[in-house]
């Protein structure tokens, strides 16, 4: 077993263990993948101010996200098909998050259902909603999340239509994988994954199959998405969803100051500056570049969070310094899950927490709550939008 010291180690191991079509599903952006790459590289360009001879004892990264205490300002992002990175992946990641003290978000497009995760974790988690044309189904989905005791709803606004990811088309992404020669040959090199899958009955979209009318076989994700996701979604829908849900509401996928103001007007509790991990509009700025102007414009009126490109605790700290009061991690936790299951997600959270804690200290701070933009070297900040 290799020694795992950073998220990149988890990525390399996940690539070995997860079937190609699911690894590629995670490690991909849309079209040229330019925004996907910029999400990471724009973080790296930001430099930190090192301070010395400051008492570094008694440090804390604790804070709250929508009023919920968290061990650090990091939540697990909603990701579709997580149960294909590893058998029962959503349940394992939810357990790891709960034990670490950070929120877990279950995607509408998960393999394990809302009820599966509630039953297995016995702790409140967050639910992410995609709005589909079938409003009866959406109302029932919201009600199921309430019944499962979910403590916040993340409404994703940036996927009314699907960005094109070349690899998914080339790999014929489907769940479960179709028994083509190429898939069979690839699966033969992933014995652990196959063994895990043989031991679970969760192989398709648990929130949808058997719940949405007329949906039995969902093997073609992109065809189903094109058919079902509602391209007419509007701010009026946000209003009825907020009413129906009645709890904490988080709007995900905001990249523009004008949309951020509309998010404030909607009465939501938080917004997530996010370009969907570079998977939707290729050519959009990186999330860390979009963050400062949004945080400055509406940070006093709503909790501003961000996601996209976070691969270390240093990235979390930089986002915090630029005004994010919370962050979400997608691929970092998926790599941990694909590499080592629940232990891999725990390892991912430990790595990020340690990097965050030590970097905060190197920058001369002991409490994340007191830390601001002055830990960053001004000339290295992303150009204002
Ligand atoms: C494989 C994968 C699947 C995703 N599925 C969803 C989803 O079902 N719902 C959603 O709102 N966002 C989804 N996202 C976007 C993430 O929630 C998050 O915005 C993104 O992963 C953050 O970027 P990062 O992966 O660089 O951390 C997905 C991202 C990935 C990588």
Low-confidence stretches: none
Ions and ligands:
flavin mononucleotide
Give the termini separation. 45 Å
Sheet with most strands: strand arrangement: 3-10-9-8-7-6-5-4
Annotation, overall tally of beta strands: 10
CATH fold type = TIM Barrel
Class from secondary-structure proportions: alpha/beta
How is the main sheet built? 8 strands, parallel
> Helical segment tally?
16
- Portion of residues within helices: 40-55%
Work out the strand percent. 5-15%
**What is the gyration radius calculated from CA atoms?**
20 Å
Mean of residue pLDDT? 95
Shape: globular
The CATH architecture: Alpha-Beta Barrel
Domains (count): 1
SSE arrangement, N to C = HHHEEEHHEHEHEHHHHHEHEHEHEH
CATH homology-level superfamily: Aldolase class I
The CATH top-level class label? Alpha Beta
Family: Belongs to the FMN-dependent alpha-hydroxy acid dehydrogenase family.
Protein name: L-lactate dehydrogenase (Cytochrome)
GO molecular function: FMN binding; L-lactate dehydrogenase (NAD+) activity
GO biological process, one term: aerobic respiration
Features:
385 residues, alpha/beta, TIM Barrel, two-stranded antiparallel sheet, binds flavin mononucleotide, L-lactate dehydrogenase (Cytochrome), oxidoreductase, FMN binding
């Amino acid at each position: 077993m290799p020694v795992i010291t950073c998220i990149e180690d988890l990525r390399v191991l996940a690539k070995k263990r997860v079937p190609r079509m699911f690894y590629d599903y995670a490690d991909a952006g849309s079209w040229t993948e330019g925004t996907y790459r910029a999400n990471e590289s724009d973080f790296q360009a930001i430099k930190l101010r090192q301070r010395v001879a400051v008492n570094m004892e008694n440090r804390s990264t604790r804070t709250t996200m929508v009023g919920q205490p968290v061990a650090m300002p990091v939540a697990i992002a909603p990701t579709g098909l997580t149960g294909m990175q590893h058998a029962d992946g959503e349940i394992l990641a939810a357990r790891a998050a709960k034990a670490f003290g950070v929120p877990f978000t279950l995607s509408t497009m998960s393999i394990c259902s809302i009820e599966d995760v509630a039953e297995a974790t016995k702790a409140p988690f967050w639910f992410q909603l995609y709005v589909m044309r079938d409003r009866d189904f959406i109302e029932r989905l919201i009600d199921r999340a309430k019944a499962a005791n979910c403590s916040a709803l993340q409404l994703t606004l940036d996927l009314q239509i699907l960005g094109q990811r070349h690899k998914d088309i080339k790999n014929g992404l489907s769940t479960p994988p179709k028994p083509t020669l190429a898939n069979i040959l690839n699966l033969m090199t992933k014995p652990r994954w196959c063994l895990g899958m043989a031991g679970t009955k969760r192989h398709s979209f648990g929130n949808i199959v058997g719940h949405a009318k007329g949906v039995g076989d969902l093997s073609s994700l992109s065809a189903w998405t094109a058919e079902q996701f509602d391209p007419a979604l509007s701010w009026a829908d946000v209003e009825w969803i907020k009413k129906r849900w009645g709890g904490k509401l988080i709007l995900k996928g905001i990249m523009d100051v004008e949309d951020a103001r509309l998010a404030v007007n909607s009465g939501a509790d938080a917004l997530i500056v996010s370009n969907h991990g570079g998977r939707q509009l290729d050519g959009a700025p990186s999330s860390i570049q979009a963050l400062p102007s949004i945080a400055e414009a509406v940070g006093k009126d709503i909790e501003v969070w961000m996601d996209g490109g976070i691969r270390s605790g240093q990235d979390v700290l930089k986002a915090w310094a630029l005004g994010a009061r919370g962050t979400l991690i997608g691929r970092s936790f998926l790599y941990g899950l694909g590499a080592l299951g629940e232990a891999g997600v725990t390892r991912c959270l430990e790595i990020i927490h340690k990097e965050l804690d030590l970097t905060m200290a190197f920058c001369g701070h002991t409490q994340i709550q007191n830390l601001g933009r002055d830990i960053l070297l001004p000339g290295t900040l992303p150009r204002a939008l």
